[in-house]
């Protein structure tokens, strides 16, 4: 038995030491109005680059961390934005391990107290205010992957946020008129969520990536989150080891309810964030992946049609559009071809609105 445990420990050590993310910024831990902590990792513009009009905040998606934006190192979106003169801030919403895990059952800050509404009301507000204070600017750019874009659709459409100059969303759904089969599969877990305090995604993925032993994941399940041909073995390991977070079941339940009911609604169900997209007017660049099963091209296009922005662009990434490969959900951020297919059009769009 002890030899077996030693073998597992050796595998874990090899995996953890061989693939650590080297791109690191300056960490800031800030407190929200309702006394939760969030983190912001700051990456200053590279020396000699052109100063841009506004800083940019980058936000992760459901069960995500800030690290998957950095895992491609100098080919990552973070570094390429720095190289274009942007002041970059990576936010992690409440509940991430960087600021301490929430408690399971007892204590002041519990997983059960986290929901999508808290993200948009408190975390986004505090992040924007903090970055504006630090930079002296009046507005920010915001780039969100998946739920990281949804929080801005909800905040600007329903709460009237005016401090965002430009928005880039990558694979961000917000209504589900025609959910694909793999997405409907997520709703099957809705009933079981009532007995769980959190979705232990990080615990499972970290163990699997470190040992190579699969517990819950399968190629079919992982296909919901990314197109596996788009990740090298090392990228896949980094994603599972560093890019996944445990998530409150309340956040996941709101998402599953939206898939079942087509509209994304507030936790008390009284507000339809989806219906309030008609109030959304921020200039927006919407990116969709051809093989994305969460933010499918048709779902992202429906969001494009629903927002009232006069300046909006829908951009699909896939071989049919002349790109090197089709893209799934997370590989839009960390796939092996993003430096050719995804990052250049995003930079072009942002630069046109951030010149000086």
Explain this structure to me?
It is built from 13 helices and ten strands. With 356 residues, the chain is an alpha/beta fold. The strands form two sheets. An eight-stranded mixed β-sheet has the order 1-2-4-3-5-6-9-10, with helices on both faces. It starts with a helix and ends with a helix. It is globular and about 55 Å long. It has one domain (26-352): Alpha/Beta hydrolase fold, catalytic domain (Rossmann fold).
Q: Describe the strand arrangement of the main beta sheet, using strand numbers.
A: 1-2-4-3-5-6-9-10
Figure out the total of helices: 13
What is the percentage of strand-forming residues? 5-15%
**CATH evolutionary superfamily:** Alpha/Beta hydrolase fold, catalytic domain
Helical amount among residues, as a percent range?
25-40%
How many domains make up the coordinates? 1
From the spread of the alpha carbons, the general shape counts as: globular
Order of helices and strands: HEEEHEHEHEHEHHHEHEHEHHH
Number of DSSP-assigned strands? 10
CATH fold naming? Rossmann fold
Instruction: Give the CATH class.
Output: Alpha Beta
Give the CA-CA distance, first to last residue. Answer: 64 Å
Low-confidence regions: 1-18
